[in-house]
Amino acid sequence: GRPQGEKLQLLLRRSREAKNSAYCPYSRFPVGAALLTTSGEIFSGCNVENACYSLGVCAERTAIQKAISEGHTSFRAIAIASDMGDNFIVPCGACRQVMREFGTDWDIYLTKADGTYVVKRLEELLPLSFGPEDLKK
After folding, report:
1. Which GO terms describe its molecular function (predicted)?
2. Is the CB of residue 2 less than 8 Å from the CB of residue 8?
3. 92 annotated ligand binder
4. Which residues are catalytic?
5. Is 20 flagged in the annotation as binding?
6. In the prediction, which pLDDT does 1 show?
7. 49 is in an annotated binding site
8. Could you report the per-residue pLDDT of 79-135, keeping only the tens digit for each?
9. Class at the top of the CATH hierarchy for domain 5-119
10. What is the Cα–Cα distance from 81 to 32, expressed in whole angstroms?
């Protein structure tokens, strides 16, 4: 199920903390993410830009790649934080597709700078998606 209480607060806090490590000299748009595995571990990530813009990587993909490099491929939730003021931060299309590689049945916590959040299922953010099971058809 969804993270509750202290675990949820920790997930949200870790996404905000990860934002502080963002390397974003070009966009000046720091983003942090914290990924909760089904085993209860949290992996954080930040966006890392590059002068060759297409070589940058988003916070969500950084967190996912860190978790995978440590042997985790089953996820319960991810929280995303930015300084967007009045708007909730949402993952880009590339991040949604990378998330989709690991199923549609997990939660995405979209936050505002003031700490408020909404929860969406990945299947809501990427309907009619293409995943690993489609390659077996």
Report:
1. cytidine deaminase activity; identical protein binding; zinc ion binding
2. yes
3. yes
4. 60
5. no
6. 77
7. yes
8. 999 999 899 999 999 999 999 999 998 999 999 999 999 999 999 999 999 999 999
9. alpha beta
10. 5
26 CB neighbour count, 10 Å cutoff: 11
Instruction: Using the Cα atoms of residue 56, residue 57, residue 58 and residue 63 in order, give the sign of their dihedral.
Output: negative
Provide CB contacts within 8 A for 120, sequence distance 6+: 107, 108, 110
- Computed over every residue of the chain, the mean pLDDT equals 96
24 is in an annotated binding site: no
pTM for the complete prediction?
Answer: 0.94
Q: What is the pLDDT of residue 30?
A: 98
Would you kindly state where each structural domain of the chain is located, as residue ranges?
5-119
Sheet strands (E) in the chain: 31-37, 42-46, 75-82, 107-111, 117-121
Mean of pLDDT values over 35-40: 97
Instruction: Please report, for residues 18, 33, 57, 105, the alpha-carbon distance to residue 66 in angstroms, rounded to integers and kept in the order given.
Output: 13, 11, 12, 20
User: For residue 107, what are its two tokens?
Assistant: 């939660």
CA 124 to the chain's CA centroid:
15
What pairs with residue 110 in β-bridges? 80, 118
Residue 58 among known ligand-binding residues = yes
Q: Which amino acid does the sequence have at 16? A: R
